[in-house]
């Protein structure tokens, strides 16, 4: 039974040795054996990371952990200088941990709407400095928002605009974030917001995109047909180079 878990829970056998390299064999076996446990969270120590990382069993945390720390979808060539990072759709905070480990002096502004994810972000970043956490959703303007698909997993929430003062949480535009934190530039912008990227790129994108030099964008064509073509067109019009790393579109100047 344990052998089956070892090979099949890893999802892709080609990453088995990477798992063992990052976690060590005993910690990896413990993780795989407890993915369906009733524990509130599992504690993990990663090679080359000083902070403990927490993972919730029976959630998408395992998938996100694999994408970031094992498949290393953010392991690309970055600009020479990264001082300011906006992380839109931070989920449980693994992307924050990854970027902070790579750019230790960078300021990270993280945005996430889900309360339980916010709790995990705080837990996963408790020993990190210069991290600002906004509880809300990224939107094309400042507005009240509601969750559109409440039965979706916590990694797949989609949002819709609500009437004033009737929303479940606040929506904030990237332009507002730039003004609020007096940002002269966005050196790294990560957007993973389950289809909302379409309405954001359709509205007043030039001010914040003009001060952005590099970014990751996960496109959700299944939710918003045509979003890939739209964003490719906009990014190319702003002279960005486009490539892909895993599920992420990577854009750079």
Index terms:
about 250 residues; 4-stranded mixed sheet; 13 strands; globular; Rossmann fold; alpha/beta; 7-stranded mixed sheet; about 20% strand; 2 domains
Structure, explained:
By secondary structure, this protein is of the alpha/beta class. The chain has two domains: 2-70, no CATH class; 84-252, Rossmann fold (3-Layer(aba) Sandwich). It is 32% helix and 22% strand. It has helices spanning 2-8, 16-23, 25-33, 61-70, 94-102, 115-124, 174-180, 197-201, 206-209, 227-237; strands at residues 42-44, 53-55, 84-88, 107-112, 131-135, 137-138, 143-147, 159-161, 169-172, 188-191, 214-218, 241-245, 248-252. A seven-stranded mixed beta sheet has the order 5-4-3-10-11-13-12. Strands 6-9-7-8 form a four-stranded mixed beta sheet. The chain has a two-stranded antiparallel sheet with strand order 1-2. Helix 5 links the parallel strand 3 and strand 4. It is globular and about 50 Å long. It starts with a helix and ends with a strand.
